[in-house]
Predict the structure.
Amino acid sequence: MHVKKLGHLFLSGVLVFIGVCLPSCKDDELRVYEPLEKIHIGEQFISDYTLDNIKQGDSIIVLNFYKDEVTDLDYIEYDEENCCFVFCKGSTSKYKVSWDFSSYNSYIEVQYGQNGMWYKMNQYDWKEYILTANDGMTVRMVCDPSKNQINLIVNKFSIEEYISE
């Protein structure tokens, strides 16, 4: 008798899982990622966002920049779809990534990406990071979607060759 009840409970649990979880996964697959509008360095950026602005898999909002306002290095490309800077020099090199921003309601991170992983650069109130980058590595600035609106000023965000002093 107990085995039969456990079997019914198990089957009920599976049906609930299928009814609740699978449609939400299916909805996520239908969602199309839309980058935010581009940010100008030094100007206040206020934007409401939707679920479509949240990067799938990361659960963050990637900030979108104009390449020429961040770097003038011709071997760094800007990936418009993913809103990140991609290193394409052909050799491993050092870069100085620097930033300064004021955020009024969002948690901001400056990150570099390597081998599918993201690493935070703005730790301990740092305002610059010396990055040793290989081809294919990326840099981006992101914010946490914990509020309904992004309100910030990016005073500086730059990528330049590092010249040791």
About this structure: The CA atoms of residues 74 and 89 lie 9 Å apart. The chain has two helices and ten strands. The first strand starts at residue 44 and ends at 48. The helical segments are 2-30, 67-70.
